[in-house]
Amino acid sequence: MPRIGSSDLSVFPLALGGNVFGWTADESTSHQVLDAYTAAGGDFIDTADVYSAWAPGNSGGESETVIGSWLAKSGKRDDVVIATKGSQHPEFQGLGADTVAKAARASLQRLGTDRIDLYYAHFDDQDTPLEETVRAFDQLVRDGIVRYTAISNYSKDRAAEWIRIADEHGLAKPVAIQPHYNLVTREPYESEIAPLAHEHGLGVVPYFSLAAGFLTGKYRSKEDFAGKDREGQVSGYFTDAGLEVVDSLSSIATAHDTEIATVALAWLQAQPDVVAPIASARNTEQLPALLASAELTLTADELQTLSDASAKVPATA
Fold first, then answer.
1. pLDDT tens digits for 86-145?
2. Catalytic residue among 51, 154, 207, 237
């Protein structure tokens, strides 16, 4: 059970993504996924207050509400680590001090809990002085409604500045960082964020770990994702070099008698400072391949084969 940075939060090495809850998975199905994930030993649930405001008929907060109803039904609040994020909810845009306070409390209400274990600044807000944001997050910790703070989608320089401000003023420092990182998107994480995370002891919790499903191997032609919910996300990964990565994953998966997605996640789990990749399942049938990554250890040669193949993927993909 890896630990998240300098925190005392030890978690299952695969975080369950909540972006599909209340979107492509209805409440009942979402509860089934959460039941199956925790029954298998999973305990790290990742969401955000904006999930899934983009879906027709939604207004934001649907994922947190679904997770909250599951927590109430299952009674498992003390058995799981809940991570959520603020700054993007339609009613709580940005990271001004007042907005941060209101957004966090709105998340608490939807989740039906008295504390958030890990609270991220979802996206940087350069219109708000960074010190104001850092102090606002520190206040959430002092108020006892957030246990640990974290950052997501921050540049190296802005993340370093957040940490400097926290150090200088004795404020709560982030214990984790959530970057876009997978076998077909290794930059700018590896050259910029990874050294900073290592220097400051931040736990790395990558999102889009399976490249919106591209690294499951189910998209081998553009026709495979045309008209699908994730078409816009998948199309950016779809290159000849990206397909070569999938082929390498497929060969290794065959050798281990496992799924392509399992191998893709195991590669991420083997990278320095990575605590738990985030992957979502819109039904229980998708879960076993994700969960199996926690048990799969790739050889040094297999890891190198995947790294070599992924190095050919254009950095802009």
1. 999 999 999 999 999 999 999 999 999 999 999 999 999 999 999 999 999 999 999 999
2. 51
Side chain identity at 207, as an amino acid letter?
A: Y
The secondary element (H helix, E strand) that includes residue 101 is: helix 97-111
Coil/strand/helix, residue 39: helix
Q: Which residues of 188-224 are buried (b: 16+ CB within 10 A; e: fewer)?
A: ebeeebbebbeebebbbbbbbbbbbbbbbbebeeeee
Catalytic annotation present for 51: yes
3-state SS track over 176-194: EEECECECCECCCHHHHHH
User: Who's near 227: CB < 8 A, 6+ residues apart?
Assistant: none
pLDDT digits (tens, 9 = 90+) for 9-27: 999 999 999 999 999 999 9
pLDDT value at residue 317: 43
Q: How does strand 44-46 pair with strand 81-86?
A: parallel
Task: Tell me the per-residue pLDDT of 279-298, one tens digit each, with 9 for 90 and over.
Answer: 999 999 999 999 999 999 99
In the block, residue with structure tokens 């925790």: 38
Give CA–CA dist 16/38, Å, rounded.
10
| SS3 call for 287 | helix
Assign 15 to helix, strand or coil.
Answer: strand
